[in-house]
Amino acid sequence: LDTELSWTEPAGDSAGGLWAQSRKEVGEPAREREPSHLTIETAVFIDKDLFKHMKSNFPDDTHGEVTRIVLAMINAVQLLYQDPSLGHRVDFVLKRLEVLISDPPGLLRPYDIDRFLTNFCKWQRTENPSSDADPLHWDHALILTGLDLYVVHQSGKISNQVVGLAPVAGMCTRSSSCTVN
After folding, report:
1. 0.85 exceeded by the pTM?
2. Which residues are in the Peptidase M12B domain (predicted)?
3. 52 has a pLDDT exceeding 60
4. CATH number (domain holding residue 76)
């Protein structure tokens, strides 16, 4: 597997992520109050097509520019999720940033975004350490792609007006806490 891997670890307790704060054991009484501060540990994957595009735009320091852009995106999302109207502070921690120089075994990347999402969700589940206590475990995985994706509507019409896709209500399930953009 030809990949480039780097990650950052959160400051402080890495085991206090979203899973640890939101999990409820069977038979456990309902909590009187929900935590006011949540952490979403995130993995971001850059596929070979986006990396190729980035390399043509930033030939001198492609990896540095990819890292800078991903961090800017994570920071922008974090700003949105720290709005007081949400009632909770939500922090995003980048646990893994990986540029996929080639297609990894088990990850098929079709142009149909629904199929791409299904494949990515399955693949990321095999990559993610199962224990929340593992310092490399993440709560949510995101793949940024350079493919020109499309969606097939129920009517059969194909549309290329696609920005991204994630399962509805999937954040709290290990198998569907994933996004394709």
Report:
1. no
2. 38-181
3. yes
4. 3.40.390.10
